[in-house]
Amino acid sequence: MEGKKQHVVLFPFMGQGHITPFLLLAELIHEYYPDYTITLVNTPLNIRNLQSSLPPGSKINLKSLPFDASSHGLPPDTENTKAIPFHLFINLFRASETLEPAFERLIAGITEEDGIPPLCIIADNFFSWTLHIARKFGVFHSTFLTSGAYGSALLFSLWKYLPHRNAYSDEFSLPDFPEIRLHHTQLSNILVVADGGDAWSVLLRRLNELCTRSDAVLVNTVKEFEARGLSMLREQLQGPIFPVGPLLCTSASHSMGMDLSDWLDSQPSASVLYVSFGSQNTIRASQMLKLAMALEATSRPFIWVIRPPVGFDVRVQFKSEWLPEGFEDRMRGTKQGFIVHQWAPQVEILSHPSTGAFLSHCGWNSVLESLVHGVPIIGWPLSAEQFYNSKFLMEEVGVCVEAARGNRESSEVKKEEVERAIEIVMDNEEIRRKAKETARVLKSALKEEENNTNVGSSLRGLK
Ligand code: UDX
Fold first, then answer.
1. Is there an atom of ligand 1 within 6 Å of 157 CB?
2. How distant, in Å, are the alpha carbons of 173, 229, 273 from that of 154?
3. Are 218 and 122 contacting, i.e. CB atoms less than 8 angstroms apart?
4. Phi/psi of residue 26, each to 5°?
5. Between residues 239 and 334, the one the model is more confident about
6. Where, if anywhere, are coiled coils annotated (predicted)?
7. What is the C-alpha separation between 214 and 194, in angstroms, rounded?
8. Confidence (pLDDT) at 1
9. Which pLDDT score, from 0 to 100, does residue 315 have?
10. Are strands 61-64 and 120-124 parallel, antiparallel or unpaired?
11. For the ranges 243-252, 298-307, 318-327, 425-434, which has the lowest average pLDDT?
């Protein structure tokens, strides 16, 4: 193989929380192995969006595979969970499986062009079917988990044991982790329907089973931060596991408008609460009302990214009836709140010195982006492994207090509880100290001092 160029192919799932860390991983690999050819593969629309977010002079190749959303019951031009309502996620997953022949052709094309097969395929755990192609071409297969180790370990365990007969009972225990008992409201929508024969069960059990046979697993986390989660994950998977995080955007993908920037600059240090439920989840209209009332009652400054509530098309225009009467005018008048519609420059907001806490759904990228800036979290987990992320942050790290859980009809939200969680996190010195300490731990994992001394734990794994 000497003298031949080494090629690494990365293939993230079509969600913002997956594509961003994959791109950052691609850039990190390029930094340490500048002679390698690095190709990131996705569907046409996602690749087009990525083209505009690549740093100038980036050497990452972007390749798209043909994809037709509308032939899978998806709205046309929707290739990202960001633009798809939750009930259609299953269609996107099924549609993503039809990419297999095109991905195989891509690997065959690279093999022909380079004269040797790629060195490695790094695939999302939702694309673990790429293992078949890797085996066929004799390529090393790596899975990259963009979520944390603890949440991933628990999800692997959950989908192994079906049906989840006791998911409806008051307490639900996880097969491999009998010590963890969760109330049913801490389970995501797809989990409570999992009877073994439903579409999610069939799909995820197969994908997870393939994933356990991957040659190596990379995780967007840090050894010192998730020691227990990593050992739980080792019980679930066969290959060696390498924490490679925190892979985070350091610069903003969207620039902050002057209005928002001026408003943030005018607030006292660590006083602003940032509220966002990530790229693909939203809360119910009734919950939005309670949240608005709680925010107003605290009298604390806040930025709230509002996306349409559950049941509305994700792209629908903002409607003032989602909020209490006169809320927006009052917030504008008193300058207490800054409302952003659809999408905010999250990294810029979290890195601003005026930001004091983040009310978040606890998606893993949001968690890392917050903690790397020493910003503590008010948890409101909504789906997937977010319930476990929040649990881990509360019980193991001590940087989070939960305000509410879930967005199912049965998930009641009390204004007073949301208010209480906000007050605790904004005022508690110990939580703030722990968030700052966590920032130090996370940042040192990808640091390298001069002359290669003191190499961070994630970099050691990658090298
Ligand atoms: C999904 C899964 O649901 C979650 O369980 C998993 O941990 C990650 O992927 P998502 O909503 O994409 O959740 O959450 P998150 O991981 O937090 O990623 C959202 C990304 O979009 C972040 O990088 C965040 O900075 C960005 N974002 C989100 C913005 O820049 N602006 C916004 O307004 C909203």
1. no
2. 11, 9, 30
3. yes
4. -60, -45
5. 334
6. 401-452
7. 25
8. 45
9. 83
10. unpaired
11. 243-252
How many alpha carbons lie under 13 Å from residue 325 in its C-beta half-sphere?
0
Q: 411 exposed, middle or buried (CB, 10 Å; 0-12, 13-18, 19+)?
A: middle
φ, ψ (nearest 5 deg) of residue 9 = -115, 125
In this prediction, residues 182-203 reach a mean pLDDT of 73
Which residue's C-alpha comes closest to atom 21 of ligand 1? 279
pLDDT band at 167 (very low <50, low <70, confident <90, very high): low
**Given this model, what pLDDT does residue 406 score?**
86
- Tokens, residue 202: 């069939």
Tokens of 10: 């990365």
Closest CA to 413 of 279, 284, 277: 284
Question: For the complex shown, is ipTM > 0.95?
Answer: yes
Q: H or E segment at 151?
A: helix 149-160
- For residue 383, report the distance from its CA to the centre of ligand 1, in Å: 12
Ligand 1 pocket residue status of 343, Cβ below 6 Å = yes
- How confident is the model at residue 329, as a pLDDT? 94
pLDDT tens digits, one per residue of 331-358? 999 999 999 999 999 999 999 999 999 9
Residues present in the chain in total: 463
